[in-house]
Design brief:
The chain has 14 helices and eleven strands. The protein is α/β, with parallel strands linked by helices. The protein has a domain of 270 residues: Type I PLP-dependent aspartate aminotransferase-like (Major domain) (Aspartate Aminotransferase, domain 2), CATH 3.40.640.10. The strands form two sheets. It has a seven-stranded mixed beta sheet, sandwiched between helices. Strand 8 and strand 9 form a beta hairpin. Helix 4 packs parallel to helix 12. It starts with a helix and ends with a helix. 43% of the residues are buried. It binds pyridoxal-5'-phosphate. The site of pyridoxal-5'-phosphate has 15 residues, from helix 5. Keywords: Decarboxylase, Lyase, Pyridoxal phosphate.
């Protein structure tokens, strides 16, 4: 890490990345390589001697870039996007540059304190009740992913319940509730904390409720479980589901959760970012009834991977579940209980200084530009939705709430896989990349608008591409 070499070589890497962004539209959006392509291009074993950076960058160009699906391409409309920004990149550089490991306060006080401050900033932007903020009675932490956050809150909920029930032998009684639209990561998390897979209830949703979880159906399933001697533990409600962007009715679900003493977690991984806009904030109404809430700034908040905010009303429950007290880490600050030791709020010991990145993103954009980013994506999605609506061969399958449009070619009995073929035709053209979902047995095409570089003309070109490919398929 000689500072002169560091400075010179970093400039070369930054120029390389700038060039990548300059040309990102020229690559096929979805990689076209075949499985195993890379081992045919790279040596079988690691080099013994150091290699020049220039050679490595050449190999990145020739071997790595062809195997990338270009998530930062403005023509990427699949899954949910992974936002990036210059500010997010700077934040990552600073994080990497300092490379501190803030597992407890003393190991890097700024890392811990900035994280607590930024979580309160974000919480205030979302108008979360003070019961979730450090300036109130709760607190927040940055994780790498929603899955990690889910494991941690499920562990806290599990341990609280097992304490009340009298011991670990009761774990087989605990039940977790979610809808059939809830992200699969919660099933994985429940399994990881020892909830028997047969005790994970996926409550069916339908077109009639716009794929949101019905409080009546939830109550019905809970009552049935109680009659069978089981113990309701945890409910995950989602704001902006992955398949269709549906929103679960938080206030009503919250009442059911309170009645049956369920831990209510809100997964706002995608749409949580949108809730900084006053016109979308109502989707969070009822959040005061939740025990915890998480969202991913790395999806729609101009924050480079990885970054997941988790707020919790009773951080003590997280700490009770996850804390460790090895001699090697003992120190007076921790003993004083006047500081946060984030190792006790997550799975791993080591942790990145992610707060620096989120802090730089918020400061460089300001709330005004962050809201502009969300609103312009929603405006493009509205326009795309209108274009689909004007073409009688197509239909919108579920009403749009955010910047995700679910649509399809109207089905004809003899062409069941028409929409699947359409997605394949679009993706294999290399000019755009889209993904799909299946809602109540119906294959829908998802157009997720939100990549940082996407502009109106990209969306218009996408629609033209879809129409052309549809025309060829229908001939
Ligand atoms: N929840 C929702 C609604 C999502 O859309 C996603 C990913 O797209 C996740 C959770 C999983 O997030 P992570 O990859 O951070 O675990």
């Amino acid at each position: 890490l000689d500072p002169v070499t560091f400075s010179n070589e970093s400039k070369a890497v930054i120029d390389f990345i700038a060039d990548y962004y300059e040309n990102v539209e020229k690559y096929p959006v979805q990689s076209t390589v075949e499985p195993g392509y890379l081992s045919a291009m790279l040596p079988e074993s690691a080099p013994y001697c150091p290699e020049p950076l220039q050679d490595i960058l050449e190999d990145v160009s020739n071997c790595i870039i062809p195997g990338l699906t270009h998530w930062q391409s403005p023509n990427f409309f699949a899954y949910f996007h992974a936002n990036a920004s210059t500010a997010g990149f700077f934040g990552e550089m600073l994080c990497s540059g300092f490379n501190v490991v803030g597992f407890n306060w003393i190991s890097s006080p700024a890392a811990t304190e900035l994280e607590s401050i930024v979580l309160d900033w974000m919480g205030k932007m979302l108008k979360l009740p003070s019961s979730f903020l450090f300036s109130g009675t709760g607190g927040g932490v940055l994780h790498g992913s929603t899955c990690e956050a889910a494991v941690c809150v499920l562990a806290a909920a599990r341990d609280k319940a097992l304490k009340e029930l009298g011991g670990w032998e009761n774990i087989t009684k605990l039940v977790v509730y979610a809808s059939d639209q809830t992200h699969f990561t919660f099933q994985k998390a429940a399994k990881l904390v020892g909830i028997p897979p047969s005790n994970f209830r996926l409550i069916e949703t339908s077109f009639s409720t716009g794929f949101s979880l019905s409080p009546e159906n939830l109550r019905f399933v809970i009552e049935d479980d109680i009659r069978s001697g089981l113990v309701p533990l945890f409910l995950c409600a989602t704001i902006g589901t992955t398949p269709s962007g549906a929103v679960d009715p938080i206030a009503e679900l919250g009442k059911v959760a309170m009645e049956f003493k369920l831990w209510l977690h809100i997964d706002a991984a995608y749409a949580g970012s949108g809730c900084i806009c006053p016109e979308l904030r109502h989707y969070l109404d009822g959040v005061e009834l939740a025990n915890s809430i998480s969202m991913n700034p790395h999806k729609w908040f101009l924050t480079n991977m990885d970054c997941c905010c988790l707020w919790i009303k009773e951080p003590k429950l997280l700490v009770d579940s996850l804390s460790t007290d090895p001699e090697i880490l003992r120190n007076n600050a921790s003993k004083s209980k006047a500081v946060v030791d984030y190792k006790d709020w997550q799975i791993a010991l080591s942790r990145r200084f992610r707060a620096l990145k989120l802090w730089v993103v918020i400061r460089r954009h300001g709330l005004a530009n962050l809201m502009y980013h969300i609103r312009s994506d929603i405006a493009m999605a509205k326009r795309f939705e209108a274009l689909v609506g004007e073409d009688e061969r197509f239909e919108i399958v579920v009403p749009r709430k955010f910047a995700l449009v679910c649509f399809r070619l109207k089905p004809k009995v003899e062409e069941e896989d028409l929409n699947c073929k359409l997605v394949e035709a679009i993706n294999s053209s290399g000019r755009a990349f889209m993904s799909h979902a299946v809602l109540s047995g119906i294959y829908v095409i998802r157009c997720a608008i939100g990549t940082t570089l996407t502009q109106q003309h990209h969306v218009d070109a996408l629609w033209k591409l879809i129409q052309d490919k549809a025309q060829s398929l229908l001939m």
